[in-house]
Amino acid sequence: MIKELSRSIREYKAAAILTPIFVSLEVVLECLIPFVTASLIDMIENNISLRSILIHGAILVGMAVLSLVFGALSGAFCAKASSGFAKNLRKDIYYKIQDFSFENIDKFSTPSLVTRMTTDVNNVQFSFMMIIRIAVRCPLMLVFSLVMAFVMGGNLGWIFVAVIPPLTVILLLIMKKAIPLFHRVFKKYDNLNESVQENVRGMRVVKSFVREDYEKKKFDRASTDVQVDFTKAERLLAWSNPVMQFFFYGVLTTILFLGSYFIIKQVNPALYDVGSVSQLIVYGMQILMSLMMFSMVFAMITMSVESARRVCEVLDEKSALHSPENAVTEVSDGSVDFDGVSFKYAAAAERNVLDGVDLHIKSGETIGIIGGTGSSKTSLVNLISRLYDVTEGVVRVGGRDVKEYDLTALRNQVAVVLQKNELFSGTIKENLRWGNPDATDEEIKEACVISAADEFVSAFPDGYDTYIEQGGVNVSGGQKQRLCIARALLKKPKILILDDSTSAVDTKTDKTIRAGLKKYAPETTKIIIAQRTASVEDADRIIIMEGGRINAVGTHKELLGKNEIYTEVYNTQNKGASDDEE
Prior knowledge:
The chain has 20 helices and twelve strands. By secondary structure, the protein is of the alpha/beta class. A six-stranded mixed sheet has the order 6-9-10-3-11-12. A hairpin with a 2-residue loop joins β11 and β12 (549-554). The radius of gyration is 36 Å and the shape is elongated.
């Protein structure tokens, strides 16, 4: 885990190394200052010359200034290293997620990935900051102060040694109890983020169904779950502070009592005098302050161990899909073949989503796919661009197994307008250029004319420079679909898949788009998934899906009246029109 995280330090290694170096120098000076101070006190008591006192005073001031400078430098380098580390870590997670297949995304879920990139990375960053600064300072200060305590106080130094073992045991017990609680807390954080995400994304639905109270209660439950476990964990960690205070004041009282006794009774006056005992108390405070700071580090690390594990879980995840060695980079044509294809989303799933599919599509054909909800229409086309891998059988594009292609090359030639259309914040031009970054204004306009988007885009005051809000909330569902079709057309693919992507447009516009596609890209294989028979009736062939299998294949005329499913769908959708004609 540490090795995996340390890779994100990269260009900030120098700052990460310089931080503990300056911390060490600061600690050395802080431990020497009480020693020089004790010598100065003894000089004053013994009426040493003013010149010697001033020299020692100047040395003391110089050491204090140097200690301040080293402390400031360690703080500056620590801030640079920790913030840079967090930046790189977020970048690494984000880039890793970009390589994930749909299967990997399904495994983690979107809210969980958001939590890992924000809350978890913040926790790891704070821990890293403490490790390279405070976690270095604490043991050094402890060791140096302990050595100086024996030098200044002789056997009284054993008091400090005696408290370390029981204190360590207590802190380890607290840590052992707290870590499982934090493990549970961060899982509940994911549920909390999921609740927020669903509510924000579905705000219109929530308001239209007047479900605000329900969503508030749902959020309150998720928030309370986090609060309950966090309270338990923090309550455990809170014990570390009173425990530290108990040992701190216990040691301080013991040192004061014994030191005063030795001075009054003149026990070893060469060793125990006012200067040595007063500085022994200073070293004692430094030792116990080191332990108190260690408890802070310990609390933060306890909290971030689970965060670090969750971050590494993403970084260690291997994409379920990857390009093979010597991958094919050219797709020869738009032919598609399914040979004995079966597929399920999870290896542990009881049944296949697709079962024994055999289908052969010629390059340039227009294929319509009809079927009821859950008949696996989308699952079928997702295998063409290798968004998922088949469980059994082979999917071929251009006569070659899709697993032989470079993923980027394959997906550049298979344009998919998904069932859930997504636009990103930016201008219409910027959104459309996702299809082709080098597309000219003329090419963009042409694609929009074919997708019937040019009419409404030109009506906007800023035209193609109109700003689209995140998720495309400032355009209608139909407008969003037409822009997504235009974006796909700009790729000039060999295979174009429209997954129910004209469901939000009227029949006339749907017909206009289909006519435009036929004229614009006659050599492109077009696969149209639709709920309306009108959207596919002029296709070269229509595939009827039922229960993950192909029920029938044929033209509109061949299927109408002969295939029960197609006929039922057609009659249901055209009943009103038939009644009007009568």
